[in-house]
Amino acid sequence: MFQKIIKFSVKIVQRYLPEPFIFAVILTILAFGLAIPICKQTPMEVIEHWGDGVWSLLAFAMQMTLVLVCGSTLASAPSIRKGISRLASIPKTPAGAIAIVSLVSALACWINWGFGLIVGVIFAKEIARKLQGVDYRLLIASAYSGFVVWHAGLSGSIPLTMATPGDALKDATNGILLSPIPISQTIFNPYNIAIVVLCIVALVVVNTLMHPKKDVICVDPNLLIEKDEEEKFQTNTPAEKLENSPVISWIISIMGFIYLFVHLFLRKGSLDLNTVIMIFLFLGIILHRTPMSYIKAFTKSATGSAGIIFQFPFYAGIMGIITGVGASGICLGGVISNACISISTPHTYPILTFLCAGIVNIFVPSGGGQWAIQAPIMFSAGAKLGVDPGLTGTAIAWGDAWTNLIQPFWALPALAIAKLNAKDIMGFCLINLIVTGIIICAGLLLWSL
Fold first, then answer.
1. How does DSSP classify residue 56?
2. What's the whole-model pTM score?
3. What is the H or E stretch that residue 109 is in?
4. 102 burial level (CB within 10 Å; 0-12, 13-18, 19+)
5. Residue 353 half-sphere exposure toward CB, CA atoms < 13 A
6. Cα separation of 101 and 87, whole Å?
7. In sequence order, what DSSP letters do the residues of 249-304 get, joined into one string?
8. pLDDT tens-place string over residues 315-373
9. How far is CA 185 from the centre of its chain?
10. Could you state, in order of their start, the residue ranges of all structural domains in the chain?
């Protein structure tokens, strides 16, 4: 029975989920169509909101591109490839492969979402190269499924924002949060930890059970082999000697690591996205040994970032529509949030906040965008209902992460590395969405009691 449900889910997604760019365009049209009657905005107002938003996430788009490219370049270093290859030799059965990929990916995403997103799929790809009989689609879906726990982890942007003192926190929450909420009340709250653990266990079990008993779609291992092209660069001129000098790589990398040490340990800075990119960058430069070797690998990795570069402006435009306030004084994001609030009680409020955040995330797949849209509304309503602000913020964070399982945008880095399409993995992710959704709702309900 379970296998029939899986096949049905995969078939539905294969048939109806379009190319991620088409999906973004459909969401744009849908947001446009909803904003006009619901927010009482004119078509021209909505178009202006859309156009103003298109270029609002350029810095974040560059961060996402660098996470993918620097992470992939680091993974292509000979020493890293050898290490991943040894780990990929551990599982001996398809079930074991799915289980270990699900576990490693989820734990890595909890530590840092950018790190986990890249490492998980590279690990899965290497296992597919070594182990015959494992379904490649499910393997990559399992690597991506761990992404669902990222916003409840150490790199969760909303919990970290709530823990950061300053006027920005007060302004973002309409004066509700006058002092920071420590991560002991969000990320390390026992209820949040319990939800994370149960989600990871569920992913390992469910992903393993989803492996087909027949009609397994494998991949030719030869297609996954990364050729070691040790190109011999000319070193006849002074310029060529500099280009191929390990000393240059070491000097710039040591400078980078000195800064990282000061930032993380002396200034007690957070392991944010920029820090992860720097770690990827300077480790990659050292492990590729020479500047020219790194440049060549970086250029090769950059070809997989096309989807992110192309689609980010369209999602930024959707965020412009969702947050845009016209002459009516109403924005679409506010309407969605207020709809959840209107039917809430102190006990159901966290669950409805979570579901509301999941809906908004389909249109605005960005933790920062989610915070900007929902924080002013949800914290005010939560305070009136007497809901713990740590719980409110955590519910928003879980909703933002949850529907990423069916939002193909964040799968683009993984798909670029795996050389698959979104429809190849989203059928499996839909099952994960249902299972983790039940766990999260139950956990939030118990937390509110």
1. T
2. 0.84
3. helix 94-111
4. buried
5. 34
6. 10
7. HHHHHHHHHHHHHIIIIIS-----HHHHHHHHHHHHHHHT-SHHHHHHHHHHHHGG
8. 889 989 988 887 878 888 888 888 878 888 889 999 999 999 999 899 888 777 778 78
9. 23
10. 30-221+243-448
